[in-house]
Input
Amino acid sequence: MPSTKPQLTTREVFARNLRRARRLKDLTQESLALDAGVPRAYLSRVERGGINLSIDSADSLARAIGIPLHELVDPAKFQGLD
Output
């Protein structure tokens, strides 16, 4: 019987992709948080999937990192980059 991975929630996908994109762009949490206008601790919780953030907050983070929001919620994006 083939093993199946549990499906990630959209929040988990966003968290994973945001963290991977930030690292690819060689940004610190501090610099991204500053650009997005959010506290660094908030960004840290977002990247861990610990916050059910609003669409406005997700959009602010996407704009600050320079990646379209739809790419940050795409499970196929940024695969294998940890």
